[in-house]
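Study this chain:
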Amino acid sequence: MRKLFTTIILFATWATVNAQNVQFHYDLGRTIDDDLEGRPSVTTTIEYYKPDQWGNTFFFTDLDYFHDGVAGAYWEVSREFNISRDKHWAAHVEYDGGLTSNKHTDLSTRFQHAALIGPAWNYASKDFTKTLSLQAMYKYYFKGQNPWNRPFSSFQATAVWGLHTSNRMFTCSGFIDCWYDKSVSGNWIVITEPQFWFNLNALKGCQNINLSLGTEVEVSYNFVFDNKGRNDKLRAIPTLAAKWSF
């Protein structure tokens, strides 16, 4: 599981509905593919979004777990500054970084962390049931832990969407990231993580139960490493998920 997250920036509807949440994901990668036997089976995610008069701040943190403890961590933090009166256009600044461990060798590896900057275009319907954010960013990789991880410049394109239906009973949200990385086959990495949620607080008598049940599907190319250290496959890995919104 990425998280990639990329990315994600939170979509505008969370500014008025669910600004913070905690997610639990049971990853089915090890179940559906023997090549992913060493993949952590549980991920918890914390997401936070806060708008203000100048723009918005967002971050998320992922923690991956083996049965005996934390396997790794990843976080992204971003800040947007409005540059148009209608708040559709913004300047986007972001940092990504993390740490992962190998189940078989018990060694840890830092991700090659990165800083990103570029324009963003944000859209929200009047009732905030439909949202979309598009970003085009210059990406700079800092020197990584391994000697072959040299500083270099990159480019990343990101789209983030949100859709609420049936009086907010169902939510479809997610992102897609595509970025240049000279270390992979074809020099490009693509990852998308659509989420599908059933929101219990939309049911009669359950308005104070801010629990959502659903799934996330991590679809990626040149991103997920298998047991042999290869990451050159197209993969689709689902989760069973629960989310509590604050």
Summary: The chain has one helix and 14 strands.
